Amino acid sequence: MPDGGAGRTGIALTERQRIAWLRLIRSDNVGPATFRDLINHFGSAEAALSMLPELSNRGGASRSIRIATVEDAERELETARRAGARFIGIGEPEYPPALRQLDGAPPLLAAKGNSSATVQPSVGIVGSRNASISGAKFAAMVARDVGRAGYTVTSGLARGIDTAAHRASLDTGTIAVLAGGLDQPYPPENIPLMDEITRSNGLVVTEMPFGWEPRARDFPRRNRLIAGISLGLVVVEAAQKSGSLITARMASDYGRLVFAVPGSPLDPRCHGTNALLKDGAIVTTGSEDVLDALAPLSRMELPSAHVIEEPEKENADRAFLPPDETERATIVSALGPTPVEIDDIIRHTGLPAAAVYLVLLEIDLAGRLYRHAGGLVSLSMAD
């Protein structure tokens, strides 16, 4: 049985830390990468929260930054408790181990169901919402077989292939990733399936707040979590322009194995999977193709993760001297609309890395910085 280095390791957040983390990630212009940089720089979420107004002002914000209040966070925590859910921090034992490896991994996941679903390594299975009968049967077969082999199955609770994969892995363990809040599953017709998942050996997770109704742009964010949780991704029937192909590209970028099921060139539902095969995806005509390719990976220890940990209180109140205006102007002038690596900014300006990261945080919190895949950054065109 695979272990994937997925033993339960980590340190639980205190209730006070969980409230501060929730406040920070729910504040304006704070995404996962910004969250991590803020805590790395200031030592704790509480310290970072106190600095947000000053940082955004120095970054050139046109209006006051909205900071989530203690009452906001406590209200969301209480909503989660009433729903039988909880928030899992990236450094806690229940957090999916493979997802920790991502630079942009959510610092907090809202989760409902059986957290043991994160113990074993996972295989993602995605594909067409308008699945054929044979496509759905194949997805279910792979889900059952990888489940019996000790993997959980991760998918997006969508119609078609996702539904088939979840249903086939209810007994062995499945993880459903939502694009909206836990109380806003999509599509509504899969609410009974979501309930089955949470009552069985499965888990439902999202990075979005309660009450968040999913929009089109939220699904790629969901897809990155499916790719990040999984060691490998199986794509069954995907059109040429589809969310499944977005997930496959992300999985490849994250160093995951990508499996594609070949199909008829006359079926539009197979154009995307056939294209993946041309690009080097693993030809998949049976479950053994997936299990054989994943076997070496599942026995490996995962590399050191991007775990966010807060230091002890006596070490947390560190003072940082911000760069002066000349240094700040030098860093800003090194940015433009073309994405660049932060290390290149450091080399180009000759300034300390801490100064560069701090100024980037200021610009980010002012809503003037774009973060791109691979850790690249650029300045808003308005600047």
Structure explained in plain terms:
This protein has helices spanning 15-25, 32-42, 45-58, 70-82, 133-148, 161-168, 191-199, 218-229, 243-253, 271-278, 287-298, 313-316, 325-333, 342-349, 353-365; strands at residues 86-89, 108-113, 122-127, 152-155, 174-177, 203-206, 230-236, 257-260, 282-283, 340-341, 369-371, 376-379. By secondary structure, it is α/β, with parallel strands linked by helices. The chain has 3 domains: 15-109, no CATH class; 119-203 and 211-298, Rossmann fold (3-Layer(aba) Sandwich), CATH 3.40.50.450; 329-379, Arc Repressor Mutant, subunit A, CATH 1.10.10. A 9-stranded mixed sheet has the order 1-2-6-5-4-3-7-8-9, with helices on both faces. It has a 3-stranded antiparallel sheet with strand order 10-12-11. Helix 1 (15-25) packs parallel to helix 3 (45-58) and helix 13 (325-333) crosses helix 15.
Proportion of residues in extended strands: 5-15%
Mean pLDDT value? 91
How much is the radius of gyration in Å?
A: 21 Å
Report the top-level CATH class of the largest domain. Alpha Beta
Largest beta-sheet characterization: 9 strands, mixed
What CATH architecture of the largest domain do you see? 3-Layer(aba) Sandwich
Number of helices: 15
Report low-confidence residues grouped into runs of 5 or more.
312-319
Task: Name the overall outline.
Answer: globular
Identify the notable features of this structure and list them briefly.
single chain, 383 residues, alpha/beta, Rossmann fold, Arc Repressor Mutant, subunit A, nine-stranded mixed sheet, three-stranded antiparallel sheet, 13% strand, globular
